Amino acid sequence: MESRRDKDIKQRKDLNADTLFSLIRSRFENLKDHQSEKAQIPLADAFMSAFAMFSLKDPSLLFFEARRSDTNLKTIYKVNKVPCDTQMRKILDEQDPASIEPLFSDIFHQLQRGKCLEKMVYLDDYYLFSIDGTGYFSSNKIHCKSCCTKTNSKTGEVTYHHQMLCGAIVHPDLKEVIPFAPEPIVKQDGEKKNDIERNASKRYLEKLRKTHPHLHLIVVEDSLYSNAPHIRELEKHNLNYIIGAKEGDHNFLFNYIKSAVKDKLTTEIKFEKDGVAHQFRFMNKVPLNESNQDQLVNFVEYWETTPKKTLHFSWVTSLKVTEENVFDIMRGGRARWRIENETFNTLKNQGYHFEHNFGHGYKNLSVVFAMLMMLAFLVDQVQQIASRLFNAVWKKLGTKRRMWEDIRSLFIGYSVDSMEEILIALFYGFKKGKLLISSDPPPS
Length: 444
Description:
2 domains, alpha+beta, about 450 residues, about 40% helix
């Protein structure tokens, strides 16, 4: 018979952190290790050590190295030989970041099989998929062959930087996001020019559809993407979209709508709900711009008015807009911010140290580290979706920063068999034993 205590902390065994750590370890073991047979650190151990560093939210590689002798790295993260910082940098700098990508789809398929994504479905069995770029490294001195560059026109000073294009399943009513494998925005092999977000987007969409050919997605993006070439790319990959459109960038489109308003060809809706005034204007099958009048889109304009202020938004979409679905389309378009607020801001401000330089390397290290950090973030998001225990500990401790600190504290201070054991101790409390000194202290 299940006890009340067991019921309070019951977890999905197929989706808890320990199961996912084992899945990640097995994937790393299947990678081809190009090191010599005499290599001291196996590739899987180097990868898993770096992943453990980001999973534990260690503030630096040196901080992680101080725990090299910690047996918990073996019991929880399955690391047999922990590399020193120099070894880890050297080994991972040579690795192709693309080798990490399949892990994201492995974990996503675990969520699908566990039916944990059903609550994220939106608009006729689709998922909202927010795509945006972010930077995570910038320096005037440190750089690698993959760095993009910016040159100050006045001083001639060169700034080296890394960015990546990220995509995540989002929902207007949920804080959880499901990130997919990011696409690095880096100088491509043999290229002298900087990579740009638009080129990265083409690569990203190709990979997205190759990995998830039948997934029903509505891509939500900012106004940077409301251009004909990008929309054609989305259509080529059978992806629906809701993309921001600004009047300053689309004078022809907005003038077309103004003319249609005069001719009473648009649909206008106004209503109040919970003290908020909502006003919509929409029209289907309108030309995107003067140069691409054959590229037809559906247009939505929206005003939200409260006693304090009025907000104005507009989008182009592939979805046929009706009076019944326009409110949902608006909410879907605004859910784009979830990738900013719940992904990038979380990584930068809630203990992940996203913008810290853990090690740049000469080839791929910076990108490999960024992808492993995003992988650790995905595992945490799965816990937030599927683990009652994880959420109970989070609620008890108040903030994720506090939770990461307490997890690290128990990881360092006690011998444990699993991450679940640490979370159970944090939820129910634990007894602190007397400090045991393993050897005679040094003379004073």
